[in-house]
Specification:
Length: 43
């Protein structure tokens, strides 16, 4: 194998991981909504 193969791949992994984490922080949070059903289910 080439020299520094594992080190280079580790660095690439860390860069991808940091980019993914930055993206996750900017995503809107999914909140569950409480939808009120009518009492009469025939509607």
């Amino acid at each position: 194998m080439a020299d520094n193969y594992l080190e280079r791949h580790r660095e690439e992994y860390e860069q991808r991981k940091q980019a993914w984490l930055r993206k996750q922080k900017h995503l809107p949070k999914n909140y569950s909504r409480n939808i009120q059903r009518p009492d009469d289910e025939a509607l």
